[in-house]
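Annotated sample (chain length 361).
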Amino acid sequence: MKKTFISATVAITAFFVFTGSAVFAHNEAVLPNAGLTPESPFYFLDKFGEAVRSFLTFNPEGKAHLQMTFAAERVAEIKIILETRGGEAKGLEVAQSRFQARLANAATIVMEQKVAGKDVSELAKELGDDFEDLKSVLKETFKEQERVLKAQEKELKRKILEARQAGDVAQVESLVQQLDQVKAQKELLELKEEETEETLEREEDRIEEEMEIKEKAERAILEAEKERQEVLDEATKEALIVEAEEFGEFDDLLVQAKSAFAVGNYQEAKRLAKQAEKSLDSVEEAIENLKEAKENEEELKEEQEEQEREANEEEEELKREETGKEVERLGQEREKAEEEVREAEEKLREVGGVDGDRDGE
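Output written by the structure step:
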């Protein structure tokens, strides 16, 4: 019995030590399988496995990278929870909290190594790349869930319109409650996204402090270019056309940043690149406004078409009623005419009978 228990313990330990492969490759985050999530009663096994892996990793660089691997696993958990349970799931808080803790641990390891007199510039650069990858994955994860909720919102609005047109008051009230819940989920999702982004940026700033100024400037330029592409990709997904002039301010600032970098003015290059990235906020806001305007236009178009269809149906019904009345009137007049014909024929016969009698006389 004792041997069986030891064997089982070793097997479980080995499983958690050796599962979890490389997460970051070619500047693109590859999330591990979410595995157990905080929603599972066996989630403690996940924590146990991470504790074992941390214990068996000895050098600081390895420990720092391992913390980023754990952070990626938390992102995978956040993704699956959002997809299956939504932003109100209790497990989301746990996954976010552990995600934040792993990022903080990685940054702390870098700080401790610097205090110990070690050159951490290369490690900081590597971890900075990992931060950027996680940031992109998280952003897309929240955007995808936002698209799901918007689709639900649109469908509910359509059903509410149909229920109102049908005069189903109870159904309208039920659907309005569901719509309010979806809107509340959207607001909560935005809040969760902001919290996660703030955590990432805070810990990323701690890491970047240990990089050389040239590397900081180079990273800032790359981040700005990457953010621009993400804005374009998001617009493409929403079938929106963004003209080149929309990025005029961004392009000017980035050109200045690259010029400053080329002459060795790295501090100015970093500042301009950050400013360029910040200018994309107004572009994103404009795209969001355009998207909402198009959605509103589409909803109004559908509502107008529905109203026109109903009006046509009512008009057809009215025409049918009028036609029916006309048919009825004509029928009555026809019956009257037929009666008059019969009466005339009767009179004719009577006249014919009188004439016949006279002829007989």
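Annotation: The chain has nine helices and two strands.
Annotation: The chain has a mean pLDDT of 81.
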